[in-house]
């Protein structure tokens, strides 16, 4: 009973941490929509999506693979191996970030004028290039903190650290100057916030390791890099499914439509705030159970996770269905037009949330190639489906495409987990013991 109480307490603290992070993200979006004209907000969101897309390469899947490789070593206090893994990942991320940042800067004018048909977007792209290295390193540190079994800190760091700094900066700029904030200026703020958060993440890592006397051991680094490559592919393909609608909308429509869609999309993601809490908690355990060949414990944990997610997220979905326009009025009267998009995206995000741990069940058990294959299938469908529906219906078409593809993907992954691991994630948990 004492163990159950401890688990529940940590779970509640995790929910609080993730709730704070989600709240800061929500508040940041409110600040953006209130201090930027709709067209400038659209340019910023387009730049933010471009940053997330390009950063997939320097992030190299480390935010997931580091959990898998650090968590078992941390349990054994093999800090020398952890140091080798961290240094390899850090160096790889920085080098790739510099390379692809330089490429992005070089092609900034072509991307803005030719691909997106928005010449005013060029300065935003340059700031995206500058943000690439610190943003990628900050995301890498998310995986490190999860692997070091710091789920509460990792949850806030992942969801709320950068939005919190950006929100504070927006408030300071608005207080000190009456001039309107531009998309370019806001992206500069985001880049600076990424630098600060990356530094804090590195400081937490070194404090936790305490510069152990164990010699740095790179024995596991090659294996970690090999495992990261398909995870990077899976993340990239998953990004195409999640955000290709926004990027294609940026190509086919004006920046105001991009702003409306992004506000609806990011608001619907409030449903999934519990995902990070759950995944930060369960992902290291999946890795440890797999290493100990405890499939029965993986299944039990999967069922506990899915049941908890259903209980937490169903009320949020109902609230969005009933009060979508009222919720969007928080961003300003212009954004109430996005209410239909919000409802459709929320439905797809609900399906994603209640099946969220299925992807970690595969990546933490050495089946990352299966995830990549499923994401590749969905990606191949994503671009034509998005192009068709956006051409026909605009923003609501992008929302419908997201919900459809998200549902199909997660249903397939549930079937793959059953086939690969023999695990059924829906059912009554056999025990609360983890």
Question: Strand tally, please?
Answer: 0
- Which structural class matches the secondary elements? mainly alpha
Number of helices: 18
> Which overall shape is indicated by the principal axes computed on the Cα atoms?
globular
Helix content: over 70%
Q: Estimate nothing, just give the exact number of structural domains.
A: 1
- Write the H/E string, N to C: HHHHHHHHHHHHHHHHHH
> Which residue ranges are poorly predicted, with pLDDT under 50 across at least 5 consecutive positions?
none
Please give a handful of descriptors for the protein shown.
18 helices, 434 residues, mainly alpha
Description:
This protein is mostly helical and 434 residues long. It has one domain. Helices cover 83% and strands 0% of the residues. It has 18 helices and no strands. Helix 2 crosses helix 12, helix 5 packs antiparallel against helix 7 and helix 13 runs antiparallel to helix 14. The radius of gyration is 21 Å and the shape is globular. The two termini are 12 Å apart. The model has no long low-confidence stretch (mean pLDDT 84).
């Amino acid at each position: 009973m004492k163990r159950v109480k401890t688990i529940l307490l940590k779970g509640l603290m995790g929910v609080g941490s993730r709730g704070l992070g989600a709240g800061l993200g929500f508040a940041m979006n409110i600040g953006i929509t209130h201090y930027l004209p709709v067209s400038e907000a659209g340019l910023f969101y387009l730049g933010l999506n471009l940053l997330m897309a390009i950063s997939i390469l320097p992030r190299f899947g480390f935010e997931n693979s580091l959990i898998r490789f650090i968590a078992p070593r941390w349990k054994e206090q093999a800090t020398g191996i952890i140091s080798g893994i961290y240094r390899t990942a850090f160096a790889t991320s920085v080098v790739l970030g510099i390379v692809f940042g330089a490429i992005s800067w070089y092609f900034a004018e072509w991307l803005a004028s030719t691909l997106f048909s928005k010449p005013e977007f060029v300065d935003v792209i340059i700031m995206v290039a500058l943000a690439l290295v610190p943003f990628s390193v900050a995301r890498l540190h998310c995986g490190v903190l999860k692997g070091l079994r710091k789920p509460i800190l990792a949850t806030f760091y992942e969801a709320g650290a950068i939005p919190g700094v950006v929100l504070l900066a927006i408030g300071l700029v608005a207080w000190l100057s009456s001039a309107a904030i531009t998309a370019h200026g806001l992206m500069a703020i985001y880049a600076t916030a990424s630098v600060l958060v990356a530094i804090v993440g590195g400081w937490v890592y070194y404090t936790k390791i305490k510069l152990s006397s164990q010699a740095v051991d790179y024995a596991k680094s090659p294996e970690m890099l090999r495992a990261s490559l398909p995870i990077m592919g899976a993340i990239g393909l998953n990004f195409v499914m999640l955000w290709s609608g926004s990027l294609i909308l940026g190509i086919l429509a004006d920046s105001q439509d991009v702003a409306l869609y992004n506000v609806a999309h990011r608001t619907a993601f409030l449903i999934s705030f519990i995902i990070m809490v759950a995944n930060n908690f369960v992902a290291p355990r999946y890795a440890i159970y797999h290493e100990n060949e405890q499939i029965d414990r993986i299944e039990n944990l999967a069922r506990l996770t899915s049941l908890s997610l259903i209980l937490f997220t169903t009320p949020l979905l109902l609230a969005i269905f009933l009060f979508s326009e009222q919720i969007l009025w928080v961003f300003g009267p212009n954004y109430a037009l996005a209410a239909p998009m919000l409802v459709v995206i929320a439905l797809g995000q609900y399906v994603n949330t209640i099946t969220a741990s299925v992807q970690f069940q595969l990546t933490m058990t050495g089946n990352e190639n299966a995830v990549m294959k499923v994401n590749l299938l969905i990606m191949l469908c994503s671009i034509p489906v998005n192009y068709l529906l956006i051409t026909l219906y605009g923003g609501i078409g992008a929302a419908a495409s997201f919900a459809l593809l998200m549902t199909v993907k997660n249903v397939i992954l549930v079937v793959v987990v059953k086939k690969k691991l023999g695990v059924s994630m829906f059912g009554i948990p056999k025990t609360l013991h983890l």
